[in-house]
Amino acid sequence: MAKKFRPLHDRLLVKRVEAEEKSKGGIIIPDSAKEKPVEGKVIAVGNGKTLENGERRALELKVGDLVLFGKYSGSEIKIDGEEHIILREDDVLGVVEA
Quick count: other Cβ atoms within 10 Å of Cβ 46? Predict the structure, then answer.
C-alpha cells in the first residue's frame, strides 16, 4: 500500500529531478561524478506558516511546481523506496517556469 505524506506548516515535499546522463558535448557522465540535482518537483505542501499574530499565511508554492533549492537544504527521506526532500518554503531559491 502506498504511503501518503502531508507536510506540516510551511514545509514542502519535493522529489529531485534526475540529472542528465550526458554532457552537452555528448560525453557520458559516470554516476560517481554526478552531483545531486538541486531541482525538484513539489509533490505535497503544508497548510501555511503561522504568523506571530496567530494568522496563517498560505504558501506561494503549489503541487507540481518545478523549484530550485540549495545543495545542502532540507532533510532527505524515503517514501515507498523513493527519495524525497522535505524543505521549508524559505529554502526554495526560485521556481522554474516554462
Answer: 19
